[in-house]
Write a structure and sequence with these properties.
Layout lengths: L1 E4 L2 H8 L1 H7 L2 H15 L4 H5 L7 E2 L8 E4 L6 E8 L11 H7 L2 E9 L3
Parallel strand pairs: 1-5
Antiparallel strand pairs: 2-3, 3-4, 4-5
Helix pairs in contact: 1-2, 2-3
């Protein structure tokens, strides 16, 4: 899969382990880089969905259209992504399984602490 980064800040956190450690703790930095590596080596978002520890799920409310990938259930952090269609636009369909099967490009939006 291809990862596009929303801005330079998130790109640096996801690509530079030392930067991730400065921003988050060691565990979060390690999990973040593990998730990024897994996404980059996946065929589609379905591969990420099939990895139970990542708990890929769509968000709702003001975050509708974005998806969360857990960086460890106990850590409370998650990577927020936006799946893109073949034309690199946000999906207009609502069938989550179709989105998972057909997505090969995502935008990494941010890393958030779900409990803050």
């Amino acid at each position: 899969m291809i990862i596009i980064y929303k801005n330079k800040k998130i790109e640096k956190q996801c690509k530079d382990y030392r930067e991730a450690k400065k921003t988050y703790n060691d565990n979060v930095a390690e999990k973040l880089h593990s998730v990024i590596n897994f996404i980059e080596n996946s065929e589609s978002l379905m591969d990420v969905k099939n990895m139970p520890s990542f708990h890929l799920h769509p968000l709702s409310g003001d975050r509708k259209g974005t998806y969360a990938i857990d960086l460890g259930r106990r850590l409370g952090y998650r990577l927020i992504v936006i799946p893109l269609d073949n034309e690199q636009k946000q999906w207009t369909i609502s069938d989550v399984n179709e989105i998972y099967k057909c997505t090969s490009v995502v935008i990494a939006v941010e890393v958030t602490n779900h409990y803050e």
